[in-house]
Design a protein that fits this description.
5 helices; about 85% helix; globular
């Protein structure tokens, strides 16, 4: 049981650091507007989680990578706050595009990751 918790903690630490690093990179190279860092990590995370789900990895690695890393790397709460901030800034069209693309591209990315992980592509 402690080994499982430790794997989730290690993965969570690495996922949080990766997400923070990507967010910093995006803030330096891309201007404000659509929250691209959150969009990118959530789409990448959807693909990777689909791959992990289909890959046949041992449970301990699913805990490390799926639950730990992906759990900390992706962010549903920041996505929701970004959406609210876009609406509050009077950018309703951008908010709708952000929300719609996050869900549609995210689901497609998860399916693609699953297909790659299962050898279907």
């Amino acid at each position: 049981m402690i080994e499982n918790s430790l794997m989730v903690a290690i993965g969570g630490f690495a996922g949080a650091v990766a997400r923070y690093s990507i967010s910093r990179m995006f803030s330096v190279y891309w201007p404000k507007g659509m929250p691209l860092a959150t969009w990118f990590v959530n789409i990448a995370g959807s693909f990777l989680l689909g791959w992990i789900a289909a890959s046949g990895l041992q449970d301990i690695y699913v805990l490390l990578l799926g639950t730990g890393f992906m759990g900390a790397f992706t962010t549903f709460s920041t996505f929701k706050m970004d959406s609210i901030e876009l609406l509050r800034a009077g950018k309703a069209g951008l908010a709708v595009a952000y929300i719609a693309s996050m869900y549609t591209v995210g689901v497609a990315a998860a399916f693609a990751g699953y297909a790659v992980g299962s050898g279907g592509l």
